[in-house]
Amino acid sequence: MIDPHEPLESQVARQAKIIDALMRRANRQHEIGSTAYGAFQSAIALQAQVWAKTRDLELTTDALRHARHDSERMRKNLADALAALDGGVALFTGGRLEVCNDNFQRLLPDISELLRPGLEIGACLSAMAESAHLVSVEGSFDAALAQARRGRAGASVVSLVIELTGDRWYQINLQRTSDENIVLLLTEMTAILRRNRSEKESLIDRQADYLQAVFENMTSGVCTFSPEGAVMMYNQQFRQLLGLPYTVLQKGVELARILDFVALHGLITEAAEHDIAHWLDRLERQGRLRRRLRHASGRMLDLHAHRLPDGGVLLELKDVTLETRATVMLENRVIERTAELTRANAQLRLQFEEKARVEEELRLAKERAEAAVSSKTRFLAAASHDLLQPINAAKLLIATLLDAAADTRFAPTVERLEGSFTSIEQLLHSLLDISRLESADKALTPSELCLGTLMRSVWEDQIPVAQRRGVRLDVVPSMVFVRSDPIYLLRSIQNLVVNALQYTPEGGRVLVGCRRRGGRIELQVWDTGIGISRKDQKRIFEEFARADNVPLGSGVGLGLSIVDRTCRQLGHHVRVRSKPGAGSVFSIEMEVVEGRRAEPEEGCERTPAMAYEMDHIVLLVENDPDVLFAFSQKLEQWGASVLAARSISEALGHVRDMGMPPDIILADYQLDHGETGDVAIAEIRRECGAQVPAIMITANRGNGLMKKGAAQGFSVLTKPVQLARLRSLIDWKVRWQSPEG
User: Fold this and answer.
1) Fewest C-beta atoms under 10 Å: which of 231, 245, 473, 616?
2) Where would one find coiled-coil regions in this protein (predicted)?
């Protein structure tokens, strides 16, 4: 019933009301009580409640008395503390004056009667601004009050400086102590201002002495003149440099008299009367003057004259005799050196003309050489397709003849024919690779590729060669991704494996694998061949260079040169370790592309699985009749049914006649009349209404065609075609990429 948080006066009043209500209730119960005993019991209970409430009332009254006493004591302590302060202090609570000390009240006697508790702070500051004892204010009372109210409590202090009568100075600080309270602090600063004023006056009095002392210690001669032309200050160096007597150079002497004395006695050879008049006129017009003068004693002087802000003149003299002599000597030496340089320049001009003539001859020779190289490159690039077409046809025919001549007396002859043709093919590839590498910015297009796929491709290409030579070829694919050019990296690995097979005798072994080196991987080709001596290891990567122990007729020495040039342009590192009679290890080190994972491939078995019968319908699109015939013969030898076409229209005619899609499409890229293989594949698929598996066979080795194949869903094989890869790829695409698969 009683809120302990209410003021003590409210609690006491509420308790009195409660006691009065209880007394009235007791009286009513006594009047209407049924028995005297019940009334007696009610009176006793009521008396106990009255005593308890009376006791609570006494305790509350005592607490209120103590609180009032503490409040008065704290107020008195605050007043005593404020009175003990040297400056004036006034505390405003809720924007009204709560308390101030005597110093604050005595500051402005004519408004002291207004400084009573409850005075609004704005009215207080307005009264101070209108006081007769206030002389000036640096700032505004209203602006200071507004800034103090906007400031953050406890941190923002706004200051004003006021001047009172009697040359008294005070600083007023307004500080907001909380959301409701503002404190005004008055600090007298009269002594500080008077001391600063005294020091300033003393400094001004001693300025002339200081300035004179500075003048006397200057190395230059200095003299100042008043606006009327009278000497004000000078140093002895000025008098000595001009050679003036004491009687002429004194404070108050006119400038005209000094100049007349100089002209009369010839102290300055250039100081004729008309010259001096010209100097003064220029000084008057431009405000400054600079002259180099020769003194009668032979000294050289620099004269600087400047107009001072008050209209006076400052003259400065410097002795530059030594500098002038040094300048003259330097000028003489410059003249001598100029003559020498002129003679040397003439000789250099002759040499330069000779050099220019030689450079022009070298430039013409370089242009002719570049033109020859460019012509060769263009020729090889343009002829690559025409060269590879008959090579491809011949390779297919030889492969067909080799299978047909098996177990006959012609088999050794055909095998030798194939070996000779393989050498021609390798030499042609080397020449084309060198041609493309000469313009590496166009030939090399690095991308992220799986190293294991290239290693398996090399194994499929070279396992027949290894079997014929009686050499064991093992490849352990490493399914990691590297950044390289897929075509040229494949050629580099092929060259290393071909060399290893070529120089390993029958019964030997060639092993291809990889080792991790931190963030890099090293592809290694091991062999048990004839080995390479240490002196030959430094030159085998040069063009047309071969080791001394290499038998005649085993190559022209281009393979390793192409590997080295390719890897250098791709940022790979090629190394070799070898020992004669024990074998060699060639390695290519590349950076690994982290975060890419390839699906594990089947291992490289001893013999590729190629013994199955190819029971497929193959639509072959090839414009070259020889290549078309050779391809058809080989595919039919494998068991396939071949539909041969030399154009897109002829291929579409085969599809319409057959009434069903073929199992796979083999298409050359460059056809007649501007037709291309990718268009042929797209047209045949559209006619069939199915995504027929397709392989593009081309001499184009750029990555652009490979990207197009990945986008349109066809594989790319380069000419001359490796038959082992072609057969396995046809089987894989028919099994897994056919619409029915």
Assistant:
1) 245
2) 341-375
| Cα–Cα distance list, 537 to 346, 549, 555, 563 (Å) | 52, 12, 17, 14
The H-or-E segment that residue 492 falls in is: helix 486-502
Amino acid making up residue 453:
T
Q: Specify the length of the chain in residues.
A: 741
C-alpha radius of gyration, the chain, whole number? 57
Enter the DSSP assignment of 445: -
* DSSP result, 601-629: PPP--SS-S--S----EEEEE-S-HHHHH
Half-sphere exposure of 458 (CA within 13 A, CB side): 32
Give me the half-sphere count of Cα atoms (radius 13 Å) on the Cβ side of residue 564: 16
Q: Global pTM?
A: 0.43
Helices H / strands E in the chain, number of each: 21, 23
pLDDT confidence of 174, banded at 50, 70, 90? confident
User: Token match 């090629």: residue?
Assistant: 574
- DSSP single-letter state for residue 313: E
Q: What is the pLDDT of residues 269-310, one digit of tens each?
A: 665 554 666 777 777 778 788 888 888 888 888 888 888 888
**Residue (of 167, 172, 171, 170) closest to 198 by Cα position:** 167
Residue 254, both tokens: 């006119």
Strand partners, 92: 97, 182
- CA 2 to the chain's CA centroid: 73
Give the CA dihedral 321, 324, 329, 335, nearest 10 degrees. Answer: -160
Nearest to 231 by CA among 223, 221, 220: 223
Tokens at 15, concatenated: 């308790």
Average pLDDT of the residues in 368-373: 78
d(CA 414, CA 406): 9
For the chain, helix, strand, coil in percent to 5 are 55, 20, 25
Strand partners, 181: 93
In the prediction, which pLDDT does 566 show?
85
CB burial string 444-459: b at 16+ within 10 A, e below: bebeebbbbebbbbbb
| Secondary structure string (H, E, C) spanning 575-602 | EEEEECCCEEEEEEEEEECCCCCCCCCC
Q: How many CB atoms lie within 10 A of CB 580?
A: 15
Q: For residues 509 and 497, give the distance between their C-alpha atoms in angstroms, rounded to a whole number.
A: 11
- Tokens representing 318 are 């410097």
Residue type, 272: A
Say how far apart CA 509 and CA 511 lie, in whole Å: 7
Structure tokens at 704: 């652009």
All residues at 6 or more sequence positions from 185 whose CB lies less than 8 Å from its CB, including other chains:
87, 88, 89, 172, 173, 175
- All domains of the chain in start order, with CATH: 75-195 (3.30.450.20), 444-591 (3.30.565.10), 617-736 (3.40.50.2300)
CB 650 within 8 A of CB 683: no
Contact (CB, 8 A) for 98 and 86: no
